[in-house]
Each structure stands twice: as structure tokens, then as C-alpha cells.
Amino acid sequence: MLDEIEPPEMSDSDGDGDGEVAKEKIQLQFHWYLSIFFVIYYSSYVIPGIVFMEYVIIVFIPLFLRVDSLFVVFTNLDSLLAFLALPLVLIVSYLIHLFLVGLLSRIIWRYTEKISPSKDGVIPRNIPSKTANLYHIRSFMIKYGKNAFMKGIFPWLANWFFNFVGTSVIAKGSTLEESVVTDRNVNVGKNCYIGVNSALSSHFVEGIFGNIVYFEIKLGENVTLGGFNNIAPGCDLRDNSYLLPMAAATKHNLLKGDNYYFGIPLRRIFKKKVMNYLKISENNLVQAEELRDKQENAKLERIKKEAEKNEKKKRKNHKKNKGVRENG
After folding, report:
1. Per DSSP, what are the bridge partners of residue 322?
2. What confidence tens digit (pLDDT) does each residue in 315-325 have?
3. Which of 146, 158, 177, 270 has the highest local Cβ count within 10 Å?
4. CB-based contact 213:251 (threshold 8 Å)
5. For residue 257, what are the domain limits?
6. Domain presence at residue 306
């Protein structure tokens, strides 16, 4: 069913006989969506469920729950270890569940990629095709894994999930906060921060019956999205780009980096415009810098004096203790 391609219907409603392709709703294959979800969801709980229940039945119940005396529970080593190990077993079972979610998602994702590899471009929605079908299937299947990691107790493992499944490339030191999309065809460099509800939307639909726009989003190193930002398909944010909250980039936008950006659509923050808006001069900036240096130097001097004072106090105590030992 995944590779069925239906012939498009022709419309002669206008009486011109041009054979125009009719706009029609995409045929969503809910049976595939639900089947894939149940496979990933339930299968990922089988092994961790067995591990946890085996521990409870074999270890926890006999050594802890069936002990009559509360005093014995906390004095007997076996009972105490059975009680203390329960949280560890829960965490291990949870990590196994996450790993299986990633493994099953990877297997299904790779299988769909063999059928029809993901490519940058525009996917027509008025002509049912294998590419459109698999686009919707991939979009649905990745949601559970993404939310399981990003909304779980170990959200930093989301980077591993995206890299392991192969949906995106997330470099070391980067942090992805919870968001609606930011799940596929994204290349994030080192030491980036994607603020809360910032959408790296590498794909979206143009209107109800519009085409699917699908292009990779690239982020360089040290890129910061303050929060509630929206980055459209095909954008390239170069190194040291800093987006203020709610700044948004339109499709195929290129940011040269080493600057701050704001607004919808986003634009650079120019020093002179900011100075005019805040009604400050170059002299004010120089004075502020001198004041900051003065405060830093004063702080360092204070730390140095405290260190010297503590050192003198230690030497004095050392001599005093030495004299007491000699007199004794």
C-alpha cells in the first residue's frame, strides 16, 4: 500500500477542456500511522516491563514486602538492598524503554528511506504518490520518540535519539528545548541553544491543499535562539548568530552570523540604531566600559585581600598550634 500511485483526476468543470489537475485532499493512511505507533509504543515496553516485574516478584516482594517487622527491614542487609535498589531498577527499565524506542524508530525510518529516500524539494499534494505517503508516515512515526525523550526525565538524550535514528544531525554541546517541530532534516552545529518553543521547521504545508516544502535547516556553531523563534525551511544560520525571542526567519534565509537578530521577519540589530533608540552616545559606552573594568578590578582586589588575610590567619594558627605542642 505504501507504493501505490493513483492516477490524478481531471477536471472539466470550467468547460475549457484543458485537463487541469484537480485539487484534492491527501489520502491519509491512518492504519499505517496507528500500526507503527503501536509497534513502537508497546514493543518498547516489553523488555523493561519483564525486567521490572521479575525484580518485583523475585526480589522485592519476598525480601521487603513480606517482611513482618519494620525493624528487620532496615537492619537486614538483603531487605535494605532490595528496598534501595528499586529506584535504580526503575531508572534502568526506563532507559531500556528509551533505547528500544530509538531502535524501533531507527529500523522503521531506515526501511522507509530505502523505499523512497528523503530529499530536499517540493512535494505535490494534489497527486497521491509514494513520496507524499512516506513523508506523512515519517512525520507521524517520529513524534512519539521525540516527545518521549524531550518531555522525559532525561531530555538531553534527545540529541542521541535524533542522531541514532538519522532524522537530524545534532553536534556535541547543543541543547534543544521542547518544541512543536525540530524533529527532522535539521543540522545543528556545536554549542548551540534552541530555546523553548523555537521551531526549526524544515517542512510545512503551504495552505490547506498546498504543496509540502521540505528543505534542510543548517545551524553553525554557537547559534542561540532565545525562545519562541520560527525558522522556515532552507534557512542557514551561520556561526555566532543570536536570535532574540520571537524572531522569525522566512524560507531560504541566510544569516551571516556574528550578530544579533530580531523581529518578524528577522533583521540585524545595528549598533547606531540601538544607540539612537536608547539615546546614548559613544562617550556613554566608553564610560560604561571603564566602569565595568573598574568594578572587575575592585572585585579582584577584594578577593586578593581576602585570600592574603586567610593565609595570614592560617600561618598564625599554625604557629600557635606548634608552640602549644612544643610546650606540651
Report:
1. none
2. 888 777 777 66
3. 158
4. yes
5. 190-295
6. no
